[in-house]
Amino acid sequence: MTRMELAINKDINKEYIEAVKHYENELNQNCSPSIDTYINLAFLYWEFASDYGFFSHHNIPDKWGEIGDEKYPEIVEMGLKKYPRSVELHFFKKYFPHRHFFEDFTQEECEEIVREYGDDESLVPYFFLYLFDEDKYRDKRDELRKQCKELLTAKNRYILSFN
Amino acid sequence: MAGLGLDLGTDALTGGTNSISSSLSTKWVQSLSGGNATYLVGAAHWASEPVEIIALKTVEKTSINSVASGSAANAAKGVTNAIPRTKDVLGHIFKNTAGHVNPATAASQSRYLNLFEKVANNSKNLNQSILKPSAIKNGVQGYTQTFRNGQQVRVHSRNGRIFDAGVNLIPR
What we know:
Chain A is an all-alpha fold.
């Protein structure tokens, strides 16, 4: 099993601290980590830092909340250096502080990200856009949900938690 | 699960008993207007509903000088935490995941929204320990209130706008 497979296994099994350690190992030891390494790791760090319900429910130790608080923006930036055209990383760069601090992130801004970077690589922004316009984004959001159900990482579970 | 006796804490409003039955009790200020105040008497039916309204009463303003101190303190400062009724915010509050609630009806959603706003407008419930340093630095405020059933309501707001809220089953 590769480091990345190990990390994803831990993520799916909700062993989130272990998952983070394996994602970090992958980042440190692979000279060309996949985009999912950055995204899944940043997502977990952001959950630790910002989602008190998640943090509390999964008994995440306080120190990991503080580590996550510092690291999720760094990991997003690291990912964007490696994958500067990633629609998902650009989306999360705006979405994370929106949900953590209620920074502005409008439907129009999200649509602009999708226009600029396309949605060939990822449909993730559509779970957010669907909140604003169910009719317009239903098909993309349904397809995204189908994809998420195939691999129940923390990120995908999060997306599936929306009505 | 029923009859867990949430006490939303506005005893000063009536000065009377708030006991509806041996296990159900709560009361909740709904509005203050003109010379009177309307308040609700309800019973808690967790986890599916925060409060089931079972009576409405009106009392004269003179008898309600002592509204819950936290709310009064906030009001004096001109700060009111309110939930923007936008699809974005509501979609993030009502979800099917740990630490959140996902009521099926609009009426039930509305009762939860009232509960969250009430928790966030009582300064006694301010609890920055649920936030990480960057949130505090960015002006986020956290509020929690733990009820007798052990469930903890938590609310996050910034500049008077509530943007996240939920219920934790296992308070830390």
